[in-house]
TrEMBL record:
Belongs to the class-V pyridoxal-phosphate-dependent aminotransferase family. NifS/IscS subfamily. It comes from marine metagenome. Pfam families: Aminotran_5. Residues 386-408 are annotated as: Disordered. Transmembrane segments: none annotated. GO terms for molecular function: cysteine desulfurase activity; iron-sulfur cluster binding; metal ion binding. Residues 6-369 form the Aminotransferase class V domain. This is cysteine desulfurase. It is an enzyme of class 2 (transferase). Keywords: Iron, Iron-sulfur, Metal-binding, Pyridoxal phosphate, Transferase. Its EC number is 2.8.1.7.
Length: 408
Protein backbone atom coordinates (compact mmCIF):
# COMPACT_ATOMS: atom_id res chain seq x y z
CA UNK A 1 0.00 0.00 0.00
CA UNK A 2 1.22 3.45 -0.91
CA UNK A 3 1.24 5.98 1.86
CA UNK A 4 -0.67 9.08 0.75
CA UNK A 5 -0.46 11.92 0.14
CA UNK A 6 2.73 11.36 -1.81
CA UNK A 7 5.28 14.07 -1.11
CA UNK A 8 6.99 15.47 -4.20
CA UNK A 9 7.42 19.06 -3.03
CA UNK A 10 11.05 18.71 -1.98
CA UNK A 11 12.03 22.04 -3.51
CA UNK A 12 9.84 23.65 -0.83
CA UNK A 13 11.35 21.64 1.98
CA UNK A 14 12.68 18.15 2.67
CA UNK A 15 11.88 15.66 5.40
CA UNK A 16 14.49 15.90 8.14
CA UNK A 17 16.62 12.76 8.04
CA UNK A 18 15.93 10.76 11.24
CA UNK A 19 19.72 10.48 11.77
CA UNK A 20 19.85 14.28 11.82
CA UNK A 21 17.08 14.43 14.42
CA UNK A 22 18.97 11.89 16.57
CA UNK A 23 22.10 14.00 16.40
CA UNK A 24 20.17 17.11 17.45
CA UNK A 25 18.17 15.75 20.38
CA UNK A 26 20.89 15.78 23.09
CA UNK A 27 21.46 19.47 22.41
CA UNK A 28 18.00 20.36 23.72
CA UNK A 29 17.97 18.64 27.09
CA UNK A 30 21.48 17.40 27.92
CA UNK A 31 24.06 19.63 26.25
CA UNK A 32 21.84 22.69 26.32
CA UNK A 33 24.57 25.23 27.03
CA UNK A 34 25.04 28.57 25.33
CA UNK A 35 27.95 28.31 22.90
CA UNK A 36 29.08 31.77 24.04
CA UNK A 37 29.39 30.77 27.73
CA UNK A 38 33.14 30.58 28.31
CA UNK A 39 33.23 29.65 31.98
CA UNK A 40 31.78 26.16 32.27
CA UNK A 41 31.42 22.78 30.64
CA UNK A 42 27.91 23.40 29.32
CA UNK A 43 29.14 26.29 27.22
CA UNK A 44 32.30 24.48 26.09
CA UNK A 45 30.31 21.45 24.94
CA UNK A 46 27.97 23.61 22.93
CA UNK A 47 30.90 25.54 21.44
CA UNK A 48 32.63 22.27 20.51
CA UNK A 49 29.48 21.01 18.81
CA UNK A 50 29.20 24.25 16.83
CA UNK A 51 32.88 23.96 15.82
CA UNK A 52 32.33 20.43 14.56
CA UNK A 53 29.26 21.49 12.59
CA UNK A 54 31.11 24.45 11.13
CA UNK A 55 33.83 22.08 9.90
CA UNK A 56 31.22 19.72 8.42
CA UNK A 57 29.40 22.51 6.60
CA UNK A 58 32.67 24.02 5.36
CA UNK A 59 33.83 20.61 4.09
CA UNK A 60 30.62 20.18 2.09
CA UNK A 61 31.44 23.23 -0.05
CA UNK A 62 35.25 23.02 0.04
CA UNK A 63 35.62 26.05 2.35
CA UNK A 64 37.49 26.73 5.59
CA UNK A 65 35.55 26.71 8.86
CA UNK A 66 36.44 30.39 9.42
CA UNK A 67 34.61 31.26 6.22
CA UNK A 68 31.21 30.00 7.47
CA UNK A 69 28.72 32.29 9.25
CA UNK A 70 25.64 30.54 10.61
CA UNK A 71 22.30 32.21 9.95
CA UNK A 72 18.60 31.37 10.27
CA UNK A 73 18.54 30.08 6.70
CA UNK A 74 19.22 31.01 3.11
CA UNK A 75 16.89 34.03 3.24
CA UNK A 76 19.00 35.63 5.93
CA UNK A 77 22.24 34.56 4.23
CA UNK A 78 21.08 36.24 0.99
CA UNK A 79 20.14 39.40 2.88
CA UNK A 80 23.47 39.45 4.69
CA UNK A 81 25.41 39.12 1.46
CA UNK A 82 23.36 41.54 -0.65
CA UNK A 83 22.49 44.18 1.91
CA UNK A 84 25.74 43.68 3.82
CA UNK A 85 27.92 44.52 0.83
CA UNK A 86 25.76 47.44 -0.35
CA UNK A 87 25.81 48.91 3.18
CA UNK A 88 29.60 48.97 2.86
CA UNK A 89 29.21 51.13 -0.24
CA UNK A 90 26.31 53.26 0.97
CA UNK A 91 28.21 56.53 0.65
CA UNK A 92 28.98 56.11 -3.05
CA UNK A 93 27.12 55.11 -6.24
CA UNK A 94 26.70 51.35 -6.34
CA UNK A 95 25.12 48.89 -8.72
CA UNK A 96 24.23 45.19 -8.49
CA UNK A 97 23.28 42.66 -11.15
CA UNK A 98 20.82 39.83 -10.63
CA UNK A 99 18.39 37.74 -12.70
CA UNK A 100 14.60 37.86 -13.01
CA UNK A 101 14.24 34.18 -12.12
CA UNK A 102 15.87 34.50 -8.69
CA UNK A 103 14.07 33.48 -5.49
CA UNK A 104 12.16 36.24 -3.64
CA UNK A 105 14.88 35.99 -1.00
CA UNK A 106 17.24 37.59 -3.53
CA UNK A 107 14.80 39.81 -5.43
CA UNK A 108 13.35 41.47 -2.33
CA UNK A 109 16.75 42.43 -0.83
CA UNK A 110 17.68 43.77 -4.27
CA UNK A 111 14.57 45.95 -4.23
CA UNK A 112 15.65 47.14 -0.80
CA UNK A 113 19.02 48.11 -2.26
CA UNK A 114 17.20 50.20 -4.87
CA UNK A 115 15.01 51.85 -2.23
CA UNK A 116 18.15 52.86 -0.41
CA UNK A 117 19.61 54.58 -3.42
CA UNK A 118 21.51 51.80 -5.19
CA UNK A 119 20.87 50.59 -8.72
CA UNK A 120 20.04 47.04 -9.78
CA UNK A 121 19.96 45.40 -13.21
CA UNK A 122 17.59 42.43 -13.55
CA UNK A 123 18.79 40.22 -16.40
CA UNK A 124 16.32 38.21 -18.46
CA UNK A 125 16.97 34.52 -19.07
CA UNK A 126 17.10 32.53 -22.29
CA UNK A 127 14.14 30.23 -23.16
CA UNK A 128 15.93 27.34 -21.41
CA UNK A 129 16.15 29.34 -18.18
CA UNK A 130 19.88 30.01 -18.33
CA UNK A 131 21.64 33.34 -18.03
CA UNK A 132 23.46 34.64 -21.10
CA UNK A 133 26.96 35.27 -19.74
CA UNK A 134 27.84 37.75 -22.51
CA UNK A 135 24.77 39.79 -21.68
CA UNK A 136 25.81 39.74 -18.04
CA UNK A 137 29.27 40.90 -19.03
CA UNK A 138 27.75 43.86 -20.91
CA UNK A 139 25.62 44.82 -17.89
CA UNK A 140 28.70 45.46 -15.73
CA UNK A 141 29.38 49.15 -15.07
CA UNK A 142 32.19 51.00 -13.30
CA UNK A 143 30.08 51.19 -10.11
CA UNK A 144 29.02 47.51 -10.15
CA UNK A 145 29.89 45.97 -6.78
CA UNK A 146 27.94 42.71 -6.79
CA UNK A 147 26.62 40.02 -9.11
CA UNK A 148 24.12 37.64 -7.53
CA UNK A 149 22.95 34.60 -9.50
CA UNK A 150 21.49 31.44 -7.98
CA UNK A 151 23.31 28.13 -8.51
CA UNK A 152 20.13 26.10 -9.08
CA UNK A 153 16.64 27.46 -9.63
CA UNK A 154 14.03 26.42 -7.06
CA UNK A 155 11.16 26.20 -9.55
CA UNK A 156 12.67 24.74 -12.71
CA UNK A 157 15.89 23.14 -11.42
CA UNK A 158 18.24 24.62 -14.02
CA UNK A 159 21.92 24.94 -13.11
CA UNK A 160 23.32 28.39 -13.90
CA UNK A 161 26.86 28.67 -15.33
CA UNK A 162 28.34 30.10 -12.11
CA UNK A 163 31.97 29.22 -12.93
CA UNK A 164 31.68 31.11 -16.26
CA UNK A 165 30.00 34.05 -14.55
CA UNK A 166 32.85 34.02 -12.03
CA UNK A 167 35.42 34.54 -14.79
CA UNK A 168 33.55 37.65 -15.92
CA UNK A 169 33.13 38.91 -12.36
CA UNK A 170 36.83 38.38 -11.60
CA UNK A 171 37.90 40.14 -14.80
CA UNK A 172 35.99 43.23 -13.63
CA UNK A 173 36.86 42.92 -9.94
CA UNK A 174 33.20 42.49 -9.00
CA UNK A 175 32.11 40.29 -6.05
CA UNK A 176 29.99 37.25 -6.88
CA UNK A 177 27.26 35.84 -4.64
CA UNK A 178 25.26 32.68 -5.32
CA UNK A 179 22.17 31.35 -3.59
CA UNK A 180 22.99 27.64 -3.46
CA UNK A 181 20.00 26.56 -1.37
CA UNK A 182 18.73 24.30 -4.16
CA UNK A 183 22.15 23.09 -5.26
CA UNK A 184 23.57 21.37 -2.19
CA UNK A 185 23.18 17.63 -2.46
CA UNK A 186 21.89 17.94 -6.01
CA UNK A 187 24.94 19.04 -7.99
CA UNK A 188 28.60 19.47 -6.99
CA UNK A 189 29.07 22.71 -5.06
CA UNK A 190 32.65 23.73 -4.41
CA UNK A 191 33.44 27.38 -3.72
CA UNK A 192 36.80 27.43 -5.55
CA UNK A 193 35.51 25.55 -8.57
CA UNK A 194 32.52 27.93 -8.74
CA UNK A 195 34.75 30.91 -8.02
CA UNK A 196 32.25 32.63 -5.74
CA UNK A 197 32.89 35.14 -2.95
CA UNK A 198 29.62 34.49 -1.09
CA UNK A 199 27.39 31.42 -1.08
CA UNK A 200 24.06 30.93 0.72
CA UNK A 201 22.93 27.61 2.17
CA UNK A 202 19.81 26.27 3.84
CA UNK A 203 19.68 23.11 5.96
CA UNK A 204 16.03 22.25 5.32
CA UNK A 205 16.54 21.83 1.58
CA UNK A 206 19.08 19.06 2.21
CA UNK A 207 17.33 16.87 4.81
CA UNK A 208 18.31 19.11 7.72
CA UNK A 209 16.13 21.16 10.09
CA UNK A 210 14.32 24.40 9.25
CA UNK A 211 15.51 27.71 10.65
CA UNK A 212 19.24 27.24 10.08
CA UNK A 213 21.59 27.96 7.22
CA UNK A 214 24.87 29.67 6.52
CA UNK A 215 26.67 32.21 4.42
CA UNK A 216 30.10 31.31 3.06
CA UNK A 217 32.35 34.37 2.90
CA UNK A 218 35.62 34.01 0.98
CA UNK A 219 38.52 34.64 3.36
CA UNK A 220 36.15 35.18 6.29
CA UNK A 221 35.07 38.65 7.20
CA UNK A 222 38.35 40.26 8.32
CA UNK A 223 36.36 43.43 8.76
CA UNK A 224 36.26 44.11 5.06
CA UNK A 225 33.66 42.19 3.12
CA UNK A 226 30.31 42.91 4.74
CA UNK A 227 28.46 45.16 7.15
CA UNK A 228 26.27 43.20 9.60
CA UNK A 229 22.48 43.50 9.52
CA UNK A 230 21.89 42.32 13.11
CA UNK A 231 23.72 43.82 16.09
CA UNK A 232 23.91 42.62 19.68
CA UNK A 233 26.91 40.81 21.08
CA UNK A 234 29.15 40.29 18.08
CA UNK A 235 28.67 36.56 17.50
CA UNK A 236 29.82 35.00 14.22
CA UNK A 237 32.76 37.36 13.62
CA UNK A 238 30.52 40.30 14.43
CA UNK A 239 28.41 39.54 11.38
CA UNK A 240 25.40 37.94 12.97
CA UNK A 241 24.72 38.62 16.61
CA UNK A 242 22.40 36.43 18.65
CA UNK A 243 22.70 33.22 20.67
CA UNK A 244 23.55 30.40 18.31
CA UNK A 245 20.87 27.82 17.48
CA UNK A 246 23.11 25.01 18.72
CA UNK A 247 20.75 22.09 18.09
CA UNK A 248 19.86 23.41 14.65
CA UNK A 249 23.50 23.96 13.78
CA UNK A 250 24.36 20.43 14.94
CA UNK A 251 21.57 19.14 12.68
CA UNK A 252 22.85 21.19 9.77
CA UNK A 253 26.37 19.83 10.33
CA UNK A 254 25.08 16.26 10.43
CA UNK A 255 23.01 16.81 7.27
CA UNK A 256 26.10 18.27 5.56
CA UNK A 257 28.19 15.26 6.51
CA UNK A 258 25.53 12.82 5.30
CA UNK A 259 25.27 14.81 2.09
CA UNK A 260 29.03 14.66 1.51
CA UNK A 261 28.97 10.87 1.98
CA UNK A 262 25.76 9.89 0.24
CA UNK A 263 25.49 12.50 -2.49
CA UNK A 264 26.71 10.35 -5.40
CA UNK A 265 24.44 7.42 -4.54
CA UNK A 266 21.49 9.76 -4.18
CA UNK A 267 22.13 11.32 -7.58
CA UNK A 268 21.90 7.97 -9.35
CA UNK A 269 18.80 6.99 -7.41
CA UNK A 270 16.94 10.24 -8.00
CA UNK A 271 17.93 10.37 -11.67
CA UNK A 272 16.34 6.97 -12.19
CA UNK A 273 13.12 8.19 -10.56
CA UNK A 274 13.18 11.41 -12.57
CA UNK A 275 13.59 9.50 -15.84
CA UNK A 276 10.78 7.16 -14.87
CA UNK A 277 8.52 10.13 -14.19
CA UNK A 278 9.43 12.04 -17.35
CA UNK A 279 9.23 8.99 -19.63
CA UNK A 280 5.98 7.90 -17.99
CA UNK A 281 4.38 11.30 -18.49
CA UNK A 282 5.57 11.44 -22.08
CA UNK A 283 4.17 7.99 -22.82
CA UNK A 284 0.80 8.74 -21.29
CA UNK A 285 0.17 12.43 -21.93
CA UNK A 286 0.44 14.38 -25.18
CA UNK A 287 1.32 18.07 -25.47
CA UNK A 288 3.44 18.48 -22.39
CA UNK A 289 6.25 20.94 -22.06
CA UNK A 290 9.32 20.69 -19.88
CA UNK A 291 10.16 24.05 -18.35
CA UNK A 292 13.90 24.68 -18.23
CA UNK A 293 16.85 23.02 -19.91
CA UNK A 294 16.91 19.20 -19.81
CA UNK A 295 20.71 19.01 -19.98
CA UNK A 296 21.59 21.64 -17.44
CA UNK A 297 19.24 20.74 -14.63
CA UNK A 298 19.37 18.83 -11.35
CA UNK A 299 17.79 15.38 -11.30
CA UNK A 300 15.58 16.34 -8.37
CA UNK A 301 13.21 18.60 -10.29
CA UNK A 302 10.78 18.35 -13.16
CA UNK A 303 8.61 21.34 -13.98
CA UNK A 304 5.99 20.42 -16.55
CA UNK A 305 3.27 22.43 -18.29
CA UNK A 306 0.14 20.74 -19.57
CA UNK A 307 -1.44 22.38 -22.60
CA UNK A 308 -5.16 22.93 -22.57
CA UNK A 309 -5.95 22.33 -18.92
CA UNK A 310 -6.77 24.71 -16.13
CA UNK A 311 -3.79 24.70 -13.80
CA UNK A 312 -5.80 25.21 -10.65
CA UNK A 313 -8.26 22.43 -11.49
CA UNK A 314 -5.31 20.14 -12.21
CA UNK A 315 -3.67 20.76 -8.85
CA UNK A 316 -6.95 20.36 -7.02
CA UNK A 317 -7.55 17.13 -8.93
CA UNK A 318 -4.18 15.77 -7.84
CA UNK A 319 -5.49 15.77 -4.29
CA UNK A 320 -3.28 12.99 -2.94
CA UNK A 321 -0.09 14.27 -4.53
CA UNK A 322 1.77 16.98 -2.64
CA UNK A 323 3.34 18.90 -5.53
CA UNK A 324 3.20 22.58 -6.24
CA UNK A 325 2.41 24.94 -9.04
CA UNK A 326 5.46 27.09 -8.52
CA UNK A 327 7.39 28.24 -5.52
CA UNK A 328 5.82 27.69 -2.12
CA UNK A 329 5.43 31.45 -1.82
CA UNK A 330 3.64 32.16 -5.09
CA UNK A 331 1.38 29.11 -5.23
CA UNK A 332 -1.07 30.54 -2.70
CA UNK A 333 -2.28 33.30 -5.00
CA UNK A 334 -2.10 31.09 -8.09
CA UNK A 335 -0.70 33.84 -10.19
CA UNK A 336 1.48 32.29 -12.90
CA UNK A 337 5.04 31.74 -11.76
CA UNK A 338 7.42 34.61 -12.52
CA UNK A 339 10.06 32.00 -13.32
CA UNK A 340 8.06 29.99 -15.86
CA UNK A 341 6.80 33.22 -17.42
CA UNK A 342 10.39 34.42 -17.79
CA UNK A 343 10.99 31.47 -20.14
CA UNK A 344 8.46 33.03 -22.52
CA UNK A 345 5.58 30.73 -21.59
CA UNK A 346 2.18 32.42 -21.89
CA UNK A 347 0.01 32.90 -18.77
CA UNK A 348 -2.45 30.01 -19.14
CA UNK A 349 0.27 27.49 -19.89
CA UNK A 350 2.44 28.87 -17.10
CA UNK A 351 -0.50 28.48 -14.74
CA UNK A 352 -0.93 24.87 -15.88
CA UNK A 353 2.56 23.90 -14.77
CA UNK A 354 3.45 21.56 -11.95
CA UNK A 355 6.72 21.32 -10.09
CA UNK A 356 7.70 17.80 -9.04
CA UNK A 357 10.51 17.94 -6.48
CA UNK A 358 11.98 14.48 -5.87
CA UNK A 359 14.00 13.18 -2.94
CA UNK A 360 15.75 10.00 -1.83
CA UNK A 361 12.55 9.07 0.04
CA UNK A 362 10.47 8.69 -3.14
CA UNK A 363 9.93 5.24 -4.69
CA UNK A 364 9.17 3.68 -8.08
CA UNK A 365 5.66 2.84 -6.92
CA UNK A 366 5.03 6.47 -6.02
CA UNK A 367 6.26 7.64 -9.41
CA UNK A 368 3.99 5.15 -11.18
CA UNK A 369 1.03 6.32 -9.14
CA UNK A 370 1.78 9.94 -10.00
CA UNK A 371 2.11 9.19 -13.72
CA UNK A 372 -1.25 7.41 -13.78
CA UNK A 373 -3.05 10.00 -11.76
CA UNK A 374 -1.68 12.95 -13.74
CA UNK A 375 -2.46 11.20 -17.04
CA UNK A 376 -6.05 10.47 -15.99
CA UNK A 377 -6.61 13.96 -14.67
CA UNK A 378 -5.16 15.71 -17.71
CA UNK A 379 -7.22 13.55 -20.05
CA UNK A 380 -10.30 14.29 -18.00
CA UNK A 381 -9.73 18.02 -17.93
CA UNK A 382 -8.97 18.16 -21.62
CA UNK A 383 -12.22 16.36 -22.33
CA UNK A 384 -13.99 19.32 -20.73
CA UNK A 385 -12.53 21.73 -23.24
CA UNK A 386 -13.05 23.98 -25.12
CA UNK A 387 -13.13 25.80 -21.89
CA UNK A 388 -12.59 29.40 -20.97
CA UNK A 389 -11.13 30.66 -17.77
CA UNK A 390 -14.23 32.73 -16.97
CA UNK A 391 -16.69 29.98 -17.78
CA UNK A 392 -17.50 27.99 -14.67
CA UNK A 393 -20.46 26.09 -16.10
CA UNK A 394 -18.31 23.12 -17.11
CA UNK A 395 -17.14 22.76 -13.57
CA UNK A 396 -20.64 22.84 -12.20
CA UNK A 397 -21.84 20.29 -14.73
CA UNK A 398 -18.97 17.95 -14.22
CA UNK A 399 -19.44 15.68 -11.18
CA UNK A 400 -15.70 15.07 -10.66
CA UNK A 401 -14.76 18.73 -10.85
CA UNK A 402 -17.75 19.70 -8.73
CA UNK A 403 -16.56 17.29 -6.04
CA UNK A 404 -13.04 18.79 -5.95
CA UNK A 405 -14.45 22.26 -5.75
CA UNK A 406 -16.80 21.14 -2.98
CA UNK A 407 -13.89 19.65 -1.06
CA UNK A 408 -11.86 22.85 -0.97
C1 LIG B 1 14.22 27.78 0.10
C2 LIG B 1 15.04 28.77 -0.60
C3 LIG B 1 15.43 29.94 0.05
C4 LIG B 1 14.99 30.28 1.45
O1 LIG B 1 15.71 29.51 2.37
P1 LIG B 1 15.28 29.52 3.90
O2 LIG B 1 16.36 28.72 4.56
O3 LIG B 1 13.94 28.89 3.97
O4 LIG B 1 15.29 30.94 4.35
C5 LIG B 1 16.21 30.83 -0.65
N1 LIG B 1 16.59 30.58 -1.91
C6 LIG B 1 16.25 29.47 -2.55
C7 LIG B 1 16.71 29.24 -3.94
C8 LIG B 1 15.44 28.53 -1.92
O5 LIG B 1 15.08 27.44 -2.57
Amino acid sequence: MLKKPIYVDNNATTRTDPRVVDAMLPYFTEHFGNAASRTHDFGWQAADAVDTARTQVAALVGARATEIVFTSGATEANNLAIQGITKKHSGEPHHAITVVTEHRAVLDPCEMVEQQGGRVTYLAVQPDGLVDVDELDRAIRPDTILITVMTVNNEIGVIQPIADISKVARAHGVSLHTDAAQALGKTPVEVDQLGVDFLSMSAHKMYGPKGVGALYIRGGNRGTALEPLIYGGGHEQGLRSGTLNVAGIVGFGCAAELCSKEFMTELDYVKRLRDRLWNGLNDRVSDIRLNGSMDRRVHHNLNVSFTGVDGEALLIGLDDIAASSGSACSSESHTPSHVVKALGVEDNLARASIRFGLSHDNTDAEIDYIVNKVADMVRHLRALSPRRKDDASHEENDPVVARWLGDR
